[in-house]
Design brief:
The complex is a heterodimer. Chain A is of the alpha/beta class. Chain A has helices at residues 46-53, 74-77, 95-105, 111-119, 135-147, 165-178, 192-198, 216-220, 232-243, 264-273, 288-296, and strands at 5-15, 21-26, 29-31, 35-39, 61-66, 80-83, 153-157, 184-189, 201-206, 209-215, 224-230, 248-251, 254-257, 277-284. Chain A folds into 2 domains: 5-219, 3-Layer(aba) Sandwich (Rossmann fold); 222-285, YebC, transcriptional regulation domain (Alpha-Beta Plaits, 2-Layer Sandwich). By secondary structure, chain B is an all-alpha fold. Classes of the chains: A alpha/beta, B mainly alpha.
């Protein structure tokens, strides 16, 4: 993957007329060819940021460069496909006719309409009026419209919204396929599993601020091993001798070890040889959910 | 620009608002011809006729249509303009249009070309139906069919196109300013059917009409004067309009262009949320 940025913002800020600070000095960079997840709870400022990137709204301050141009520049727009919030189409036209309208606007061949309908598996239902579509079908049509230009950069705002579980899985696969090669996908979502499955790097936004930007692996932190053993004090003492005090912590009656899961065999042997009963020994990884709640200050299950 | 016109035409050609408006214009024209025909053939007990049959024949159809089309046609144009501009906000299609290749002003310019074409279609339908209705009346009455001069027909078409266009522009500008169609068409219709008429009456009463010149800048005062400039002895005695046709054309055109430019400015500068 090349390390060239295709989206770069500096101090990007949006304060609406009502005084609401929706986006607060965001500095994000999306590299060419990656699938970038823009993660945050509802109302965090994801959609406002994406709207600024495609030129629909102007920042109050700060700058953004998207595909080498300022947001909204026709030259830049020619290389960007986007689906921002809910798909916007004409209810009295069929799905196919709606795509033809977009193809005309984007100066794209009408042949491409059938190709993208195939890609989102909507060909057989493309003759129906958009107003009669289910939420999932509308979402697919929105993605199809975003793909019409065969864009270098695809910006998708919560593309799995309204899809059933099978539809979500298919959409994720589609996005993964689209993200292969040189094309860049910038995907916003509040679904952690979705981001974890699809994205190479993520940016976490909370209350309008970008609180973290890294690879998914970096975000999840170092890998480790979880040990449940009895007596736990004796097990902790033994493992501290093996790995050092800094590598061990005790949470919820279990020991968390910062070490490679391949050391599990050795850990087990030492504990058993010392007469300590081992009830659980498994690789441990923080879930994206835990990291997310930690970063955004949201409470789990709230 | 060509791309935006193509796209705009593709989506507008089956747009229900335009198709319904075309039907309303045609239906109302036929209805007015039928009612006038009935009144012309059925004088009152005092022997007075509410309509002169001579005005219903093809040689007078341009003059007749000018009177019949206004203000119903103007009201229809406002509704169509408000739906055309305001509907895009309600459907969220503005963001789809503005995130493709063309810039915002190019998109708007393309839309205006297609809107002007639709106003011309409404005008042609009005005159076409008027001509057909006048032929029908003449045929039933056994009157020889003669047509007005081509230049009069062209002037008539041009005048109604301009009037439909400026009233459409009121709807367009309100649709963009308010960002939704319902309130835009409500305000537009209220303005044309009540506010302007009341304002003109009041202004004319101030200091014995010292500010009458102000009313001569009102959009539909001029539109009315323009339609009244099309008349003939068959319509009976008529008072010459206070505003000349030339003045009316200039004022109406200025309003139309001004409203479209203001709407373009709003679209260019405002956020699409």
């Amino acid at each position: 993957m090349e390390n060239i940025t295709i989206v770069e913002t500096h101090g990007l800020t949006k304060r609406f007329g009502s005084g609401v600070l929706a986006v607060d000095s965001i500095a994000m960079s999306v590299r060419r060819g990656e699938v970038y997840g823009f993660l945050g709870p509802n109302g965090a400022g994801k959609t406002t940021t994406l709207r600024m990137l495609v030129g629909l709204i102007r920042p109050t301050s700060g700058t953004a460069t998207v595909a080498g141009h300022t947001p909204g520049d026709p030259k830049g727009l020619a290389t960007i496909g986007s689906l921002i919030e809910s798909p916007g189409f004409y209810p009295y036209l069929s799905g196919r006719e709606n795509l033809r309208v977009v193809a005309d606007l984007a100066s794209v061949s009408q042949k491409r309409v059938e190709e993208v309908l195939d890609m989102v598996e909507l060909s057989t239902r493309a003759g129906r009026k958009f107003g009669t579509y289910s939420t999932g079908m509308k979402q697919r049509l929105g993605v199809a419209a975003a793909l019409l230009k065969d864009p270098d950069l695809l910006i998708l705002d919560e593309p799995t919204n309204g899809l059933d579980p099978q539809g979500m899985a298919e959409m994720r696969k589609l996005i993964k396929d689209i993200g292969q090669g040189d094309r860049t996908v910038l995907l916003s979502s509040h679904l952690l599993g979705e981001v974890e499955q699809i994205c190479d790097r993520v940016g976490v936004i909370s209350n309008g601020k970008l609180v973290k930007q890294s690879t998914v692996q970096e975000l999840l932190g170092e890998e480790g091993v979880l040990v449940r053993a009895q007596p736990i004090e004796q097990a902790q003492e033994l493992l501290t001798k093996m790995f050092g005090a800094d590598a061990i912590s005790r949470q919820d009656g279990a020991l968390h070890l910062k070490t490679k899961p391949t050391n599990s065999v050795e850990i087990n042997r030492h504990l058993v040889n010392a007469g300590i009963g081992v009830s659980e020994l498994r690789p441990f990884e923080r879930s994206l959910e835990e990291v997310f709640f930690q970063l955004t200050g949201e409470k789990q299950g709230s | 620009m060509i791309a935006t016109i193509k796209a705009e035409w593709r989506k507008s050609r089956f747009r229900p608002a335009f198709l319904v408006a075309t039907g309303i214009i045609a239906g109302i024209t036929i209805l007015i011809y039928l009612l006038s025909w009935y009144l012309a053939l059925h004088p009152s007990a005092a022997g007075e006729r509410a309509a002169n049959i001579l005005t219903l024949y093809p040689d007078q159809f341009v003059n007749f249509v000018m009177g019949a089309a206004f203000p119903v046609g103007a009201a229809v144009a406002i509704v169509v303009g408000a739906l055309f501009a305001g509907g895009e906000f309600g459907w969220g299609t503005l963001k789809t249009m503005f995130t493709q290749r063309p810039g915002r002003l190019t998109v708007w310019a393309g839309r205006m070309v297609v809107f002007a074409a639709w106003m011309l279609i409404l005008t042609v339908v009005l005159f076409g139906v008027g001509a057909a209705a006048s032929v029908m009346v003449a045929a039933f009455q056994g009157y020889a069919i003669a047509w007005p001069a081509a230049i009069d027909l062209l002037k008539g078409v041009g005048a109604i196109w301009l009037i439909f266009g400026v009233n459409g522009a009121i709807g367009l500008a309100l649709g963009v300013a308010i960002r939704q169609p319902a309130a835009a068409l409500g305000i537009g219709l209220t303005y044309v059917l009540a506010v302007e008429i009341i304002a003109v009456r009041f202004i004319n009463l101030i200091n014995d009409g010292a500010y009458k010149w102000v009313t001569e800048l009102f959009v539909n005062q001029n539109a009315t004067a323009l339609t009244q400039s099309f008349t003939s002895p068959a319509f009976g005695r008529s008072v010459a309009p206070a505003i000349s046709a030339e003045h009316a054309v200039l004022v109406v055109a200025a309003w139309g262009i001004g409203l479209v430019v203001v709407a373009a400015g709003l679209l260019r500068l405002r956020d699409v949320t």
